[in-house]
Amino acid sequence: MASPAARRLARVRASLGEHDLEGLLVSHRANVRYLTGFSGSSGWLILDDARALFITDGRYETQAAEELPDDAGFELVVLRNGALAGLVEQAARSFAGRRIGFESAYLSFREWARLAEDGVAVDWKPVSGIVEGQRSAKDADEVTAIRRAGAIAARALTEMLSVIEPGVRESEIAAQLEYGMRRLGAEGAAFETIVASGPRTALPHAATGEREIRDGDLLLIDFGARWQGYNSDMTRTFVVGVPNPRQQEVYDLVLAAQEAAGAALREGVSGQTVDAAARAVFAAAGVEERFPHSTGHGLGLEVHEGPRLARRSEELLRPAMVVTVEPGLYFPGWGGVRIEDNLLVTPDGSEALVRLDKSRLGSLPL
Q: Per the CB 3.0–4.6 Å rule, which of 69, 113, 186, 233 could disulfide with 3?
């Protein structure tokens, strides 16, 4: 059976003609990993219909030799002096006269200027989305990795909740959660863990701070684990003590919106359709203006990737896409609630990749 890298390279090569290209320079780290399996921080891939040069520096010579699969036909080039200059030299030598695309969203101006300087006999063309389009639908191994990352995060959260009590700082909760994910096998946190309490839960992307938890606080935790390069991304909202009526009302609205978006999620619908399903719940309650962000995003090698579940997202969902569904309501000076799950798109609907209770507003014991 062909390796994932070999299969993915074949698909990218088959798509080059659609973009009027003869080859592609891949520089974005997630795209390089997707196509090669290389997990280091310095690597470039240049390919055409016959060759695939993987270019790195001496720090990664052994690692690249171990991680690049034999059946994909990679030629390993190790640069000793000046990675960018060496890359240009290799491109000119191996792909002279060819029309080669480069990932314009990720190449710096300095790098572009070096590629485009006089004397480099390559016809460079800016492109975007070629590899990302392949990445948006996951294969079975990718889904397994995301599911594992989610299971690690969910277990770490469950085990960590017992440490929460009045007087504990937000930063302590985040540290305990991230330690728990590491202890359970994660490569690390998928992103900087968000722990917000009390009025600070009204900040959708609050930075974890030193505020001490208090009795009656809303407590919002946005977290994820990374496993074999793949990420999970979940949010749960709790109350320290017993929820008051307003807290319960807001929570119930957010849960209803999340369930409505999840019910709309299936093959062939657009991202804006899923987003609209969540907003309709909030609009009926007269609070849509308190939902300032999109309903969700794709998830995989990056925490935020395609597709988007947003007002203007016309992309149609395909089976095996993995997305977050994360509506929220935020009231300045009072607080906010967000609930987020990771869902796999299927022909008939969706599948939750992690089971983590959200049926009620979690009440943490004092």
A: 69
Whole-angstrom Cα distance, residue 200 to residue 63?
44
Cα gap 61→80, rounded to integer Å: 10
Q: What is the pTM of this model?
A: 0.94
Residues 6+ away with beta carbon under 8 Å from 67? 36, 37, 38, 39, 40
Can you give the pLDDT at residue 112?
82
Q: What is the mean pLDDT of residues 16-34?
A: 96
* 201 vs 220: CA distance, rounded Å: 6
Confidence (pLDDT) at 119:
52
Query: What is the rounded CA–CA span in Å between residue 308 and residue 295?
Result: 8
- Whole-angstrom CA distances from 176 to 205, 219, 343 are 20, 15, 26
Q: Report d(CA 261, CA 352) in Å as an integer.
A: 13
Distance CA 24, CA 101 (A): 5
Name residue, tokens 């849960």. 255
- Overall average pLDDT of the 355-362 stretch: 71
Average pLDDT over residues 280-284: 98
Q: Which of 227, 195, 247, 244 is nearest to 300 (CA)?
A: 227
In single-letter form, the type of residue at position 9 comes to L
Q: How far is residue 193's CA from residue 271's CA, in Å, rounded to a whole number?
A: 26
pLDDT for the residue numbered 363 = 53
The predicted-structure confidence for 185-221, as pLDDT tens digits, reads as follows 999 999 999 999 999 999 999 999 999 999 999 999 9
